[in-house]
Amino acid sequence: MSLKDLPQEARPREKLLARGPGALSDAELLALLLRTGTAGKSVLHLAQELSDQFGGIAGLLNAPSNDLRAIKGLGPAKQAELQAVLELARRALAQTLRERAALDSPQAVKDYLQLQIGRRSHEVFAVVFLDAQHKLIALEEMFRGTLSQTSVYPREVVVRALHHHASAVVLAHNHPSGSVQASRADEMLTQTLKAALALVDVRVLDHVIVSPGQSLSMAEQGLL
């Protein structure tokens, strides 16, 4: 069943046009992207199932391509549309951060990192490069795998900071396990990078740990 087969008052598009996007549920918004369901399953039913299976809209949009390909009724076109929506959200938030002092709103930085790396199935280490006014220059994912002082190379972080002419950085990594508790290894790595970057006059403002739906600022915890 497609959206056009629904009663007029139940169609998400008409509801959105009449009352605005805030009036729609997550499933209804997702149904607008999917447009059609599968045999014996309405598009709204499919949208709700997908949302439930992946732990919400954020989980679905960040799901690995292999997981999406396994879903009946979610072909390449729909997968591409979902991934395009996530990329648009990333770019919109990045543009917002570039247009204002990024650290005027620590929550905006956490939200940005959540969108970028919060739901990765593997651990990644990223660096947010900032200018002298603490505006966003770039975010780079620099390393993958379990973090330690031997798996993250300070020299490479310093090289990229110099490349971007950065005045400050925010370090970040994700915990796919769901916990955002800073480990002793996280603290040692932070201090190692802080010392290396200080040699080229680049400040480490924070080290943010994110997992699905959670984030922790080591600066706010007094761990920097």
Structure description:
With about 220 residues, the protein is of the alpha+beta class. The chain has two domains: about 90 residues, no CATH class; about 120 residues, Cytidine Deaminase, domain 2 (3-Layer(aba) Sandwich), CATH 3.40.140.10. Helix content is about 45%, strand content about 15%. A five-stranded mixed beta sheet has the order 2-1-3-4-5, sandwiched between helices. It is elongated, with a radius of gyration of 20 Å. The mean pLDDT is about 80.
Summarize the structure.
This protein has 9 helices and 5 strands; from the N terminus they run H-H-H-H-H-H-H-E-E-H-E-H-E-E. It is of the alpha+beta class. The model has no long low-confidence stretch (mean pLDDT 82).
CATH architecture of the largest domain: 3-Layer(aba) Sandwich
Our count of helices gives 9
CATH class category name of the largest domain: Alpha Beta
Q: What coarse outline follows from CA principal-axis ratios?
A: elongated
What is the residue-mean pLDDT, rounded to a whole number? 82
Termini separation (Å)? 55 Å
- Helices and strands, in order, run as HHHHHHHEEHEHEE
Layout of SSEs?
Elements: H1 12-19, H2 26-34, H3 43-53, H4 57-61, H5 65-69, H6 76-98, H7 106-117, E1 124-130, E2 136-144, H8 154-163, E3 168-174, H9 184-198, E4 203-211, E5 214-217
Parallel strand pairs: 3-4
Antiparallel strand pairs: 1-2, 1-3, 4-5
